[in-house]
Design the sequence.
């Protein structure tokens, strides 16, 4: 189990003990989660490095600092999304009385498929035009870029 799996396990033991109790094999679960987090951080950090332009005249040490900051930012985002989940007593999306079952199901569908895109388990071309629209409907611009679902990325792939 890597550092992310250990962090998740510690966080969940404190804030989500009911969730851990429902897991058949916590060791395997947190080992896999740690690997997923590590992959996701790498994917996002790589995307940022590729799209981030170096300022003119940037020194070696400035570049190292900038790249470390990009990695830290990617890690912080992923930890917030996959590891440092709200405590069990926090209100969940499914518990929101203002959302219909269809809206909750739609958001869960979108979340799962965007996660698969970010993790490289699927690509925008795997989805129909209608499904790509569904994915884009509720995603923030930065997430669209990371998943390849922005208008520019879809046009480059010949999907728009």
Sequence:
């Amino acid at each position: 189990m890597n550092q992310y799996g250990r962090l998740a396990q510690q966080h969940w033991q404190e804030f989500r003990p009911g969730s851990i109790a429902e897991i058949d094999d916590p060791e395997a679960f947190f080992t896999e989660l740690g690997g997923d987090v590590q992959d996701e951080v790498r994917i996002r950090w790589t995307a940022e490095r590729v799209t981030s332009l170096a300022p003119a005249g940037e020194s070696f040490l400035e570049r190292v600092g900038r790249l470390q900051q990009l990695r830290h930012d990617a890690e912080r985002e992923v930890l917030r999304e996959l590891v440092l989940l709200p405590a069990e007593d926090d209100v969940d999306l499914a518990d929101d009385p203002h959302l219909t079952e269809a809206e909750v199901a739609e958001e869960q569908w979108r979340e799962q498929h965007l996660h698969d895109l970010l993790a490289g388990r699927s690509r925008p071309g795997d989805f129909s035009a209608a499904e790509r629209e569904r994915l884009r409907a509720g995603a923030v611009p930065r997430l669209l870029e990371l998943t390849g679902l922005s208008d520019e990325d879809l046009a480059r792939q010949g999907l728009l």
The CA atoms of residues 23 and 29 lie 8 Å apart.
